[in-house]
Design goal:
Length: about 280
């Protein structure tokens, strides 16, 4: 069947195979939004065909696959971008500004708490398919873990626990403590729990809570709650549109340094997820 979509000058058409997509000279970049288990082979094929790759999170199922893709993209001078859309919302810019402001005041960050938990899904949902890369860690765990890494860097030490469902055949919940020097971030994720997606930053003099940190519609005006202070209103923003505009600008400018930065961001998250998985398994 004709399942592969080609966009060009606001016109959509369908090609009969992924190979045809890769061979089309009119296509510069391919957006991969398939199950996690297929990210690596599809991204590798696209890069080998000379296409820039935008890939849904997480970049790959296994760390060594992410490392291979990053090396291949660097070798060929191509963009390899992971779809971590929340980083491109005005809220993220505000969080970074808050961290810089508190640091300029000489205030130490004491802790970061991040969580993404969602209710149970329909029985046929692919996130319950172990063979497709399902499970809570790679689906919702990606968000708090990647946020902690982006804000604080890769951790020095990791401790983690995970709940694996023998009925579903995948992990359904987990928590990790990431130690960064003299402070720590606590990350929590689950499928089959009350809905929550939030980040809280605790400084010596003030706490900041973002209650819609990761998933939010573009028309939503969000607020950062401030303990002992007035809330900070963040205007509505389209994080997906901003992300795609950012990737497009890098490609148009052939910004090789930008390509490397994106790949390194994805690898930092992949390394941390791998450490969390191994820590949970050994515990």
């Amino acid at each position: 069947g004709k399942h592969f979509r080609r966009h060009h000058d606001s016109v959509q058409c369908y090609l009969p195979s992924f190979e045809a997509l890769c061979e089309d000279p009119g296509i510069e970049a391919i957006y991969i939004a398939t199950p996690i288990s297929s990210h690596y082979p599809l991204a590798r094929a696209a890069l080998l065909a000379g296409k820039h790759v935008l890939c849904e999170k997480p970049l790959t199922w296994h760390l060594h696959e992410a490392e291979e893709l990053a090396a291949l993209a660097a070798e060929r001078g191509l963009l390899l971008g992971e779809i971590a859309m929340y980083r491109h919302h005005a809220q993220w810019t505000q969080l970074r500004a808050i961290m810089a402001e508190r640091a300029a005041r000489g205030e130490r960050l004491l802790a970061l708490r991040a969580r993404f938990t969602i209710p149970a899904l329909g029985s046929g949902d692919i996130r319950y398919r172990a063979d497709l890369g399902g499970g809570a860690l790679l689906d919702v765990g990606f968000y708090p873990l990647s946020a902690a890494v982006m804000l604080l860097g890769e951790p020095d030490r990791v401790a983690a626990v995970s709940h694996h469902s023998s009925e579903k055949g995948v992990d359904l919940a987990g928590q990790a403590l990431l130690v960064h020097g003299d402070m720590a971030s606590h990350c929590q994720w689950a499928i089959g729990a009350a809905y929550s997606n939030a980040i809280e930053l605790s400084f010596e003099g003030r706490d900041y809570l973002v209650e819609r940190a990761f998933s939010k519609p573009p028309e939503l005006i969000t607020r950062i709650a401030v303990r002992e202070g007035e809330p900070i209103e963040v205007p509505a923003d389209d994080q997906f549109a901003n992300l795609l505009a950012h990737f497009t600008a890098l490609i148009r400018a052939d910004d090789r340094a930008g390509y490397v930065r994106l790949a390194q961001e994805a690898l930092a998250t992949a390394r941390t997820i791998d450490r969390v998985r191994r820590a949970a398994q050994s515990g």
